[in-house]
Write a structure and sequence with these properties.
Blueprint lengths: L7 E3 L5 H7 L6 E4 L1 H8 L5 E6 L4 H11 L2 E6 L4 E6 L5 E7 L4 H6 L9 E3 L8 E3 L9 H7 L1 E2 L6 H4 L3 H12 L2 E2 L1 H10 L8 H12 L4 H11 L2 H4 L19 H12 L7 H9 L6 E2 L12 E2 L1
Parallel strand pairs: 3-6, 9-10
Antiparallel strand pairs: 1-8, 2-3, 2-7, 4-5, 5-6, 11-12
Helix pairs in contact: 7-10, 10-12, 12-13
């Protein structure tokens, strides 16, 4: 069980100006995905995910002007954009075009815990929303309370294979269980990750390494057959013995090294990433500059 609870929940005050503005905009606008999930879990987030019934691009463009942000088109064809608002508490607003309605938009999402929505008019002036206001056709709220990661549909993983890596990250970070059917779906279709661009794989892998749960993620990716698809060079290290002073073979030694770097006073995401990637030709590093948890200057 998680700490998601019934009754009323409150958005972080950082979103106050944005929510107030979007409540004055037509057409229908819904909060979706991570903003609802994280708020229910009591986790702070700087991302505001919105779905606009219709064309969301002009909504994003006008929002950037009104809120003093930067407007970026992420996908012209699908009508997906982003507004970045800088400041002492910067936020990122991702806007999707729900051209077929909110129900169809939710059905096209990755996992049930991300397939909930709230009409923006249901958010009070003090940023409260009631549990009863959540649109939840895929039972995401109960899965969230149960700590379960479950695909929205049988085609969720196939339509966008990078979701397999995302499932691992969500599972490790929140200590959630991946449902039996979703695990099987990942194992059956992990080979599809070979068709995903190296840039997207790299970005998701960086997110995994930029956490305190990388060790658990690596173990899970190995169990699900993901690692051999995104870094096939590592497969040949399995079973390669080391000198008698070592307990593990080469493969397990690399994973255990990452685990040791996550111990108190040792954890550094850039160091973890460097140690992991030095054994792989899949992701080449030109330089790593560390500032807090930032990892940069990667060449693919």
């Amino acid at each position: 069980m998680t700490n998601a609870h019934d009754g009323f929940n409150k958005l972080h005050p950082t979103f106050g100006n944005a929510v107030t503005y979007f409540k004055t905009v037509s057409p229908e606008i819904y909060l979706v995905g991570g903003i609802i999930r994280n708020t229910l879990l009591g986790q702070k987030t700087t991302d505001l995910d919105l779905a606009v019934v219709g064309d969301g691009l002009p909504v994003g463009s006008l929002a950037a002007q009104h809120l003093g942000g930067t407007f970026i088109i992420l996908d012209q064809k699908r009508g997906i954009s982003r507004v970045i608002i800088k400041g002492s508490e910067p936020i990122q607003i991702d806007i999707t075009s729900a051209s077929k309605g909110i129900e169809a938009d939710l059905a096209d999402r990755d996992f049930t815990i991300n397939s909930m929505a709230i009409e923006i008019d249901q958010i009070s002036d003090d940023l409260l929303f009631a549990r009863s206001s959540i649109i939840d056709p895929h039972n995401g709220y109960n899965d969230l309370k149960s700590g379960l990661i479950k695909s929205v549909s049988k085609t969720s993983l196939i339509s966008d294979p990078i979701r397999m890596m995302r499932a691992v990250r969500f599972s490790a970070n929140s200590n959630f269980e991946i449902s039996k059917n979703t695990r099987q779906g990942i194992q059956d279709n992990s080979k599809l990750l070979k068709d995903v661009s190296i840039e997207r794989v790299r970005d998701e892998l960086l997110k995994i390494f930029d956490t305190h749960c990388t060790y658990r993620s690596l173990i899970l990716m190995n169990q699900l057959g993901i690692t051999e698809q995104i870094i096939p060079e590592l497969s040949v290290t399995k079973g390669i013995k080391q000198p008698d002073s070592h307990i593990w073979d080469v493969h397990d030694h690399m994973i255990e090294t990452v685990g040791n770097l996550e111990k108190p006073n040792v954890w550094k995401p850039a160091a973890k990433f460097l140690i992991w990637c030095r054994y792989s030709k899949a992701l080449k590093i030109t330089s790593i500059k560390e500032s807090g948890a930032d990892i940069r200057d990667l060449r693919h």
